[in-house]
Design a protein that fits this description.
D-Maltodextrin-Binding Protein, domain 2, alpha/beta, 288 residues, three-stranded antiparallel sheet, Arc Repressor Mutant, subunit A, 3 domains, 24% strand, single chain, 12 strands
């Protein structure tokens, strides 16, 4: 069996359906269907049971999946070590960062970086999802956390605070409300954010989105109260704070990379540049 065959098996096992696996592999559904049937025919074994809800691995399938995962890990490990020996200030660097920081903060800094480093290409992935540094989904991660991954290295830039904001008109219309009684707006990465004084299960959650800027827009229009990073809420004139950032919910803004990439020149150079640039905005992130 070849590596390309194992990639098909691995994709189907992770996705559960041919359509989702095809999307991962950037192939069409019929191609993946033909490939898995041919793989099973050539090996005279069935790797998946075809069930009404999708594909479920057989015993042989689980054995193939384990081998595929081991090979994939070794490939990622080799690629990181090769990239880690790159001493030139040119080539691509993928950065993952939260949506709000990517759009509202990083643009100016990355433009300035380009003026000094025209041979480095930056691929910025703005998402609230955690991309894997081990699997090389990104080389640099800007993360809001108190617990960076064990296999990463990096530096804590500063504290990162969040608190509640609302449009003044909304507050005037609900002047007799307590915190617990407001309509709430949440981005997906803020769903777990609530101070001890508010019980989530009793909240009226009016709006949710995977994009914090959509939540910011709804708060500006007066739809309700939203937990927002201080760098967004404080910079929006139509919003006011409802409370000081709860100390128990304070996090840190970290700049991270995989330990294998710490000597890659373009990665190290960009990390140093971003750290210095963002450190100057410490008061903004902390909400002072």
């Amino acid at each position: 069996m070849e590596w390309d065959d194992l990639k098909i098996i691995l994709a189907i096992s992770r996705a559960g359906t041919l359509s989702a696996a095809a999307k991962q592999l950037k192939l069409n559904h019929s191609t993946v269907f033909r490939r898995i049937n041919l793989i099973e025919k050539n090996n005279s074994v069935r790797f998946f049971e075809r069930l009404h809800y999708g594909y479920e691995a057989t015993e042989a399938g689980n054995q193939a999946i384990q081998v595929a995962e081991n090979m994939e890990a070794e490939m990622f490990n080799l690629n990181r070590k090769i990239l880690g020996k790159d001493l030139t200030l040119q080539g691509k660097v993928r950065i993952t960062a939260p949506v709000g920081v990517s759009i509202k903060i990083l643009g100016t800094h990355l433009y300035n970086f380009y003026q000094e480093n025209p041979d480095i290409q930056i691929d910025l992935i703005a998402t609230c999802n955690t991309l894997s540094l081990s699997k090389m989904e990104a080389e640099i991660a800007l993360r809001v956390t108190n617990s960076p991954p064990e296999n990463s290295i990096g530096r804590r830039i500063c504290g990162f605070n969040t608190t509640l904001y609302a449009n003044q008109n909304y507050l005037d219309k609900h002047s007799n409300y307590k915190l617990q009684e407001y309509d709430y707006l949440f981005s997906n990465d803020m769903m777990g954010w609530l101070p001890k004084s508010i019980a989530k299960k009793q909240l009226n959650i009016k709006f949710t989105s995977d994009n914090v800027l959509s939540v910011l827009d709804m708060a500006e229009q007066g739809l309700g109260v939203a937990p927002l990073p201080c760098f967004l809420g404080d910079a929006t004139e139509s919003l006011v704070r409802l409370m000081d950032p709860p100390r128990e919910l304070n996090k840190g803004l970290w700049l991270l990379t995989h330990s294998d990439l710490r000597k890659t020149a373009r990665v190290r150079h960009l990390i140093n540049f971003m750290f210095d640039a963002l450190k100057h905005q410490e008061a903004l992130f902390f909400g002072k």
